[in-house]
Amino acid sequence: MASNAGAMDLRTLDDRGLELRIAEILISELKLEDVTADTFDVGLDLVDELGIDSMDLTTVALVLQDVFRVAIDEDDYPRLKSVRAIREYIRSKIAGA
Amino acid sequence: MDLMQERWTTPVVERPAVERAAWRFREILALPEVGERFERVRRWFHLRESTYDVTNRCNLRCDGCYYYEGEKQFARETPDPTAWRELLDAERARGITYVVLAGAEPALVPDVLQACHDAIPLGCVATNGVLPVPGSIGYRMHVSVWGDDATSARVRGMPGMLRRQLEVWRGDPRAVFVYTFTRENIDQADDVVATLAAADAKVTFNMFSAPVGYAGPLRHDAASLAATRARMLELLDRHPRHVLFSPYSAVAHTQPLGLHDLFGCSYPRCNPSTFIGLGRSFRQYRTDLTWDRQVSCCVPDTDCADCRHYASGSAVVTARMHRHASHPDTFRAWLDYVDTYLAVWVAGYEKGANLCRQPPAPPRAVGEEERS
Hints:
Chain A is mainly alpha-helical.
C-alpha cells in the first residue's frame, strides 16, 4: 500500500516547486523537446495547445499518482488541463485526504 | 514470435478486484515483458479514428446488417473521388490519423478508397470479401464471416461464400477475417477457423451486437455468451498462429453486461464530453459527407446495451488503461487486448505472445460495484 510519506513531502513543497515537478513529469512522459521545467508555461492548455491525446494523459495521470501518492479518478481528467490546474488538483486531493 | 508455445486452455479465473493502490504504475512497468510491451503499444497511441460510409450500395443483402438500419442508408452517395480526397485532407488537418471505411460495400468504389488512402494511409476497410480491392490500397481489409457456407447462403444469400473469400484474399497480408459469433453459429466456428488456418489466413473474433429493435435469433443470451467464450479460448489455443485474439479479449466481450455498461463507451453517441479522445475528435460520416454527433459511433444503430462489437471494444477497452493499471495481471490482460487490437487494425503490426494466461474479470471503475 502507498504510504503517506510522499504526501507529507508534498506539503513541504511550495507551489512553484510543485509545478516544476509536474512539468518534469510531463516533459519526461511526453518526451517533449526544446522545453525545460523552468521554461514550461504553467498555463499552457495540455489538450488545446499542446495536443496531448487521451492515452498520453492517462499515462501522465498514472505517473502523477505514483509520484504524489494521490488517487486520480478517470472522471477527474478534465481537471488536468495545465500544469497549474494539476498543481491545484493535487493540492485539493492532499487537503481532502 | 512463437505463439505455438502458448496454450490457453486454463479456465478463466474470475478473480476479485485487487485493492486499488496496491501496485504503483511504475512498479508494474518494471516487470519483465510488461514495460517492453507497453512501450511497443504506446507508439500507436497517436491513432485518432473516424469512420466513413463510402457507398450505400452492396452486392449482398445480409440479415442483421448494420448499414441497412436507421437513416444513414438513405444518404445521397458521393461517387467523386476528388470530393473524398478533399474531405480526408481536411480530416488529416484536424488530427485524424486512422480511417475506417465501411459501407454498405466499400469494394464497389475502389477509386474512393484510393483517394482516401492517398490522404490518410492508415486505416481499414470493412468488406464482405467477395470482391477484390486493388493492392495499391494498403489498408487492413476486414473480411466478414458470419458462419459456415450453409449459414452464409441462408443469412447472406451467397453459396460458397468462404471459398470465394479465400479465392480473393488468400496470401494477401492486408486481410484479416472477422468471424462474428451469433447465438446460432458458435459450433460452426471450428470448421471455419480450421479452413482459414489451413489457408494461412489470419482471423479474429467479433460478437453479434443487435441493431436497435432487433430481437431475432442471432442475439446473444447468457448461455451463448458463455459458450462463445469457451469456443474463442479453444480456437485461440488450437490455432495460435492464425487467431489474432487474447484470453482477455474473450472475457471482455462475453460478459453479461455489454461494453458500454462495463467500460463506459467513449464514442460521441454515448459520451457527451468533448474534452479529449473520441468524444472530441471522432466523426462518423455518411455517404453524403455529413455527420451527426448524436449518432456517431463505430457501428451506428447498434443497441448500446447489447454492444460487444470488436470495433467498439478496440477503442473502449483500450481507453480504460487507467482502471487496468491496478495490478500486474490486469495490466497484462489490457496489454494483450491492445496488442490484439493493433494487430487486427494496423497493417504490418505483428502481434506478440499473450502475457496474461488467466485473465481477470473486467475491472470496475472507482466507486462502481463489483462486476461480472
